Amino acid sequence: MAYYKPLRVLLPIAFLWFALHDGVEARETRLVPGVDNNGERIYLESHRTPALYTGDFGDCGGGGDDVFSITKFDAGLYTDNFTVLFNMHGSTTLRKENVMCTYIYSSHLRKRANRSQYTYGEQRFEMIFDPCLTQVYSMCPVDVATPITAWAQIPIPPIELDVIPSIAYGIPDFDGIARLQIFSNTSQTRIGCFQASLKNGHSLSHPIAIPIVLGFFTTLAILSSFVLAIYGSNIPQMRTHYAHAFSGLIVFEAFHSIFFSGAVSVRWPSVLPAWRSNFAWSAGLIYADKIVDGISSFAGINGNASEANTVGSVVSDGGFSQRLYGRSIAPGVQLTVEKSLAVARGLFRRQGPPFNSSNPDDYTWGGRPTRPGLPLPGSPSGFTGTLAILNIPPPDAFLSALIWFFIFLALILASMALVRYVLCRQAIQKRLEIEKLGYFRSHLPGYIGVASLRAFFIGFTPLTTLALLQLASPDPPELKAIAAVMGFLVLLGVGSVVYYACHTRLRLGRYEIVSDRLRLERGRVLKVVPTVTLICASRIALGDETGRRPLATFPWFHIKYTDVDPDRTTAHEDEAYIKRFGWLTAHYRRTRWWFFSCWFVYQLVRAIILGAAISSPMAQVFGLLLVETIAFIVIARLKPFEGSRNSAAAVWLLGVSKVATAGLSIGFLPNFSLGGIPSTALGIIIVAIQMVLVAAILIFIGLSVISSWMSLTRDRDDFPKFLQPHRTKFLAKMDRRAPDIPEVKKIGSDHEDREPAAPYFSVNSVRREPKIGEGLSGTIDPYLLSNGSGVFLPPGGVGSRPVSLNSRHSISSLRRAALVHPGSRSTADLTQVPLETPPRIAERPNSSRRRPQMSPPLEAPEDQGGLRGTARPAVENKEPRRAKR
Description:
Distance between the termini: 107 Å
Pfam families: TRP (PF06011), TRP_N (PF14558)
Largest sheet: 8 strands, antiparallel
Structural class: alpha+beta
CATH architecture of the domain at 32-202 and 304-376: Sandwich
CATH topology of the domain at 32-202 and 304-376: Immunoglobulin-like
Helix content: 25-40%
Oligomer: single chain
Strand order of the largest sheet: 7-6-9-10-3-4-5-8
Family: Belongs to the transient receptor potential (TRP) ion channel family.
Strand content: 5-15%
Protein name: ML-like domain-containing protein
Membrane topology: Multi-pass membrane protein
Number of helices: 23
Radius of gyration: 43 Å
Region (Disordered): 818-885
């Protein structure tokens, strides 16, 4: 019976799925004729998704000259059967008598609707139709007592679609708008305008899937660092292992840099705001109806989010009633409009009809009216374009981020308390050996305080940037006052902690300015690309200075800090300092423990450029490019991080991404007037660069989890054997990098920068070789004997070689002054004496005598037993050949 228990759970789910599936399939499907890509006639479902369709919509009247309130505005372009679908629901404040001529709403008065599509800033398609001729009788004529229910499917000639580029149907986040303008035939003026964004079904914005994945990996990074911070009892050793975990600060900084790159006030292609919206959660910008509605009510942003009209979509600060109903109509009908408000209010609250699954022509791809306070759809300009995708009004951004920041902070503190409770329960039940976690259990308040300070240090960048954006925007004074106070408190709190951390360590010492010189030297990037680098002479080792050849030198200076107590422990070995400020200094090298102060100043300058300079796009772009370039050079030169993954991500990947994004943003400035398609291509390049950054961050987080596991099991022997060498190597590298001692440069790595070595010759060891013919009997030529270099073979022997071949001399490689002379022998030389008696060597009569010729010196192999020298003399030893008879 145990095998049937899973069926009790699966069968109801299966039956429910089949029931829902049958309900969907039970919907009546109506087919309409169409044409495929090959031009053949086919039949299509009437509720299919168009190739281009509208999204959210809003009022584009601008000057408040509209007298319509629209609750539904959908338009779709079908390329398979060359039709345009138009669907609109709404109401109007006009009556027949309200236009001063009752007969105007008769057969003599008609409204013309002009629906245009604008793609990439160019008008691509335009169609003019008469509502009366297209059977839209609710607009023929319009009246306050008649709701507008306009639905039409209008055929268009195929030649009209040729003006739309084919890339528009497949590019992600298509950049286009659909606009409906209504004109009066009598006054020849526009009385209605509504605009919606265009979509093609492809987008880089996934507000649920991507944030969940990124949040999961971010949680892994935080946990992998947290477990190393609580595991152990030796504080310096805990800091060493914690320094090699992937920093959560770097993760959030990468996400913040992507999201706030859209704070530059330029006209972005829609692909960039869509991509950046996936990282808004890291800055605390998460849409929640109750939070946004509460902040909007406090900010004075009033209006009905279920309708699109300029009525109510403004900030109320006095005189709201006059601006709410002050339409640009003829002055004589103002009283009539005010009398009809009672009837109009009921129609303003009218919602668009819900989706009807029984209707074969109904669809689900339609948009909604924009919230009050949001910009017009289809115009992603500046930071408001990114906020519009999040459905958060710009005045609500700072307060929304501040509320979510405190919610996240409360979750972090509650999680730490929960972890301690679980550990205590496990210790009581003796299910877990937690000797290494005793320090965390006894110091929970200190860990909670450190976690709070760390969260404020990470949240300093988004909160400061959003506060400055709030102050530079034309928002209500109440919101500006809150942003100024809270932003100042965050700046003062984080800045005070940073200053106090530096002062605590550096107060017992003195500073002095020391003269120095800047050296311009040759170098290589990635050991391949030649470049020129600047280095201070004081940073070069004394023994290495003479070997480097600078291109030029310049006078310079540096600030030197001298500690009063030379024997005082370093910042990474001082347990008291680590307990108080290890959350700031732990990830940095021993000689770069103060780098958190530089990071704080860099983030503050960057926030000022993005937030305070919002009214000057050129100052934002070029100022940001300058700051990012300087920061990249300085951080790359300092190499502050102790862990290799942190250094690779924060120094190289993040730095290159910031500089490239700031540099490519220059093309979006209004002065360059970049076209639609080139700007979209440029935006896709920026997205590709940032995608590489995000992918690398996720990979580093995965590797950090593995390295944290190795650190936690450093005292255990039960470890997988195939990972044992990697753990040993990782722990050895960790111990080697902890003292922060400069590594010795390999010999030959900079041979091009060295001074050319002077020629020299030295002999470290010489071993005597036996002389040719020494110890052998025979008749030796007197001349050759005096020189010790030549031997003649006897006339007797086997063979018939020519006489000329038997008169060869054995030639030595030594000069006469360096010929080997017989001397005392050692036991080592006895091993080289042949055991057999060599043949008789005699002088051949009538042999031609010639002086021995000198041959070039030959290289001898190095003596493995003695010292290695740069050169040693070698003696050629040729065995005498036997003469052939």
